Amino acid sequence: MKFFGSPPTNGSLANKVVHPANLCFKLPDNVSLEEGAMCEPLSVGVHACRRAQIGPETNVLIMGAGPIGLITLLASRAFGAPRVVIVDVDDRRLSIAKNLGADEIIHVSTNIQDVDEEVIKIQNAMGSGIDVSFDCVGYNKTMTTALNATQSGGKVCLIGLALTEMTVPLTPISCKGGGRHWHIPVQEHMAALY
């Protein structure tokens, strides 16, 4: 996959870019350029919620309060999620998440040694089992946290693709019982591992 603005395709922050015509879509006259620019990130959040089957009985954890995490928060609410907890390393982003409707926000570190302590905070903030976790960051720590925080039988969906390779503790997670579902990645191709 290639994305404008992500290495190795840098430099798309410009007034005009050349793009293959078969990948371009004309916006209707009633859709502004700003609204049109939000179609792709919105589609990521909606696709994630569809794939994870978010509904009125689904408690959701979101790792990362960046643009995709915030859109996934809004999509989760639109799909009926009764409780959404979002975590991030940036207090400003967490403040935005709270204003957009997150039930709880949790400031976490970048240190993987803090996972166990942070999982307890996340689970306490949810107040009941976490049914679905969306990792909107894509680092070893965020995926490890999501896998550990999600209840047995829950779903963990990788949306963020920060790393090309990831190391996560699958054996301890799978030994918890009840089975878990991993969906990797949500953005384009999805593979379920059972």
From TrEMBL:
RNA-binding listed as a keyword: no
Keyword Ubl conjugation among record annotations: no
Annotated ranges, domain Alcohol dehydrogenase-like C-terminal: 67-175
Transmembrane segments: none
Family in the record: Belongs to the zinc-containing alcohol dehydrogenase family.
Keywords: Metal-binding, Oxidoreductase, Zinc
Protein name: Alcohol dehydrogenase-like C-terminal domain-containing protein
Cofactor(s) it depends on: Zn(2+)
Organism whose genome encodes this protein: Salix suchowensis
Pfam family, one: ADH_zinc_N
